[in-house]
Automatic annotation (TrEMBL):
SUPFAM superfamilies: NAD(P)-binding Rossmann-fold domains (SSF51735), TrkA C-terminal domain-like (SSF116726), Voltage-gated potassium channels (SSF81324). The keyword Transmembrane helix applies. Its main location: membrane. Residues 149-271 form the RCK N-terminal domain. It is a multi-pass membrane protein. This is RCK N-terminal domain-containing protein. It comes from Dermacoccus profundi. Pfam families: Ion_trans_2, TrkA_N. InterPro entries: K_chnl_dom, NAD(P)-bd_dom_sf, RCK_C_sf, RCK_N, Trk_Ktr_HKT_K-transport. Keywords: Membrane, Transmembrane, Transmembrane helix. The keyword Transcription does not apply.
């Protein structure tokens, strides 16, 4: 387990590379250029018709009231042709002769043909895919340029990407979406997200598309490569690390060979869900409390903390799966000391009569549930783990009382969110999985005592002058402990429904700090608990009266007027 969670932190040393400009334009994507190019022939035809009509009307003589020959000036001829050809029809400037009226009739038919040609070409242009793509790209680029706060680029809006985007939106984080599949980008409009999300249907593996999505933008803080294609994710990792070194990039990968290629570019994380699940399963077998704590804290749903899994360690395990999932799970179980038997799903129901655990993971969700139910009938006390490609059959899984459910997209989304929403939280996860089971039991006991079984929202408390001005001002002249910060400003004897997870001081991480630990003005404290506790703590961060009350127990007037009155009250 230790090797599994730490191996991605030891990256290959990257080579120094010369700076390269990030392309942010695709060829032939300017809507105005496309309009001019497609409308060139109709405009030339209309201009020619106007010129011939004006010239002819200027040359053909007319007659005045005395019967003398007259000619319209070029401007008068242009004026008449303009409102005639545009079907406005003010009438004749002067009484026309028969020759002039015959010429005007010819001009009317020529201009009608010209306008029909131009309008038809314009309507065809508006319906063409190239023009619509160009307009969409220009609108997308304008939205991205208007972002003036940190944002992430999410490549792929499938099951994992969609779940990540929903959680990022709830956390108030801005993001940009790119997906090449038809119809996926359109879901964003119906997902009822709080923010206006720039989204583009394009190939995210192209550097120019990443450039349009804001890779070169100073506010871009990371890229999530969550597409369904491992090769595209590799291309995204390459483009991000080569064109903008130092930018955080997290990639999803199912193929072990592609994963190794990604590691050469030193991304922040490569999440192989098949490999991850085997490690989590071993963690559940060896340290169930640690597994329960980590999985519950990473799960964005507001579910109560489940009871720890009770699989029987050791003994024989049957893995009925195919592909790399079977290889990864078998390898992890064997390293943990299990005797593993691999069964081919095509051979029917495997023999589980002497097994302690059964893992089923074919590519068909219905087949997986059927195999799991048959195994449960054969052995009611059998520990059953099932892989599900999607959560569409979550109700069936719940009804079958499956012990452990593995959904690859859900695991990818949870780990990605744990790394990007509160990066300090992932350091706690890495630390927790390296500790004995008693460490997690202690954290669970503190969470249960202060928050019950449902509070798991996280917040990073910055004790600087910008993050917590009231607490910072108090720390400049007096001390505060972690326990005092977590006291309620409504009643000092009441503990907020919050538990400290990590205290960062001068780059050093203090995990699960004791509440008697004193804090300084440069510290950062990661807490977890109920939303009500986070709201109350936010008030303490900005209220001088609340900060002094939790430190001393003295009620201090909030406003300047009340402080003046209290100061003069003893003298009176």
């Amino acid at each position: 387990m230790l090797a599994f969670f730490t191996r991605h932190s030891h990256r290959h040393r990257t080579r120094l590379r010369r700076p390269v400009r990030i392309p942010d334009e695709a060829p032939s994507t300017d809507a105005i250029f496309i309009v001019i190019r497609r409308m060139r022939s109709p405009l030339v035809f209309i201009t020619t018709v106007f010129a011939i009509s004006v010239l002819g009307l200027s040359i053909i003589p007319g007659k005045d009231a005395n019967g003398n020959a007259t000619h319209l000036s070029p401007f008068e001829a242009f004026y008449f042709i303009s409102y005639t050809a545009s079907t406005i029809g003010f009438g004749e400037i002067v009484p026309f002769t028969t020759a002039q009226r015959m010429w005007v009739t010819v001009c009317i038919f020529m201009t009608v043909v010209g306008w029909a040609y131009a309008i038809g070409t314009l309507l065809s242009l508006l319906q063409s895919a190239s023009f619509q793509d160009a307009v969409a790209m220009q609108r997308f680029r304008r939205k991205v340029k208007r972002i003036r706060e940190p944002f992430l680029i999410v490549c792929g809006y499938g099951q994992a990407g969609r779940q990540v985007c929903r959680e990022l939106d709830e956390a108030g984080r801005r993001f940009v979406v790119i997906d090449s599949h038809d119809g996926r980008v359109e879901r964003i409009a119906t997902d009822e997200l709080e923010s206006d999300v720039p989204a583009l249907e394009a190939d995210a593996s192209l550097p120019s598309v990443l450039g349009m999505a804001g890779l070169s933008n100073q506010y871009c803080e990371g890229v999530l490569a969550l597409t369904d294609d491992d090769t595209d994710n590799l291309a995204i990792v390459m483009a991000t690390t080569l064109l903008r070194p130092g930018t955080s990039v997290i990639a999803r990968c199912m193929d072990r060979v592609v994963e190794e290629r990604m590691d050469d570019f030193a991304p922040n994380a490569v999440i192989n869900p098949s490999d991850r699940y085997g490690a989590y399963l071993v963690l559940a077998l060896q340290r169930p409390a640690t597994y329960n704590l980590v999985k519950w804290l990473m799960d964005p749903r507001d579910d109560a903390m489940p009871k720890p899994l009770q699989p029987k360690p050791g003994g024989c395990w049957v893995v009925c799966a195919d592909g790399e999932f079977a290889e990864e799970v078998t390898s992890d179980l064997e390293r943990a000391g299990m005797n593993v038997t691999v069964a081919d799903p095509k051979d029917g129901h495997p023999d589980v009569s002497r097994a302690n655990g059964f893992v089923v993971g074919t590519d068909n969700d219905t087949t997986n549930l059927a195999l799991a139910e048959h195994a449960k009938i054969a052995r009611s006390d059998l520990f059953v783990a099932v892989r599900q490609q999607s959560d569409a059959r979550a109700s069936l899984v719940s009804a079958l009382a499956i012990d452990s459910v593995f959904t690859p997209t859900e695991l990818v989304a949870q780990e990605s969110l744990a790394r990007v929403v509160t990066p300090l939280f992932w350091s706690f996860v890495e630390y927790a999985v390296q500790q004995p089971n008693e460490f997690a039991e202690g954290i669970i006991a503190r969470l249960t005592a202060h928050c019950g079984h449902t509070g798991k929202e996280r917040m990073l408390v910055d004790l600087s002058a910008q993050g917590s001005p009231a607490l910072h001002r108090w720390l400049l002249h007096d001390e505060l402990t972690v326990g005092q910060i977590l006291k309620s400003s409504d009643g000092r004897d009441e503990h907020l429904p919050l538990v400290p997870l990590v205290l960062v001081r001068n780059g050093e991480h203090i995990f699960a700090p004791d509440e008697s630990t004193t804090v300084t003005t440069d510290d950062h404290l990661l807490v977890v608990g109920h939303r009500s506790g986070l709201v109350a703590l936010h008030e303490t961060q900005y209220s001088d009266a609340a900060a002094e009350y939790i430190a001393t127990g003295a009620h201090v007037p909030e406003t300047w007027l009340w402080r003046k009155l209290k100061r003069h009250r003893p003298a009176a």
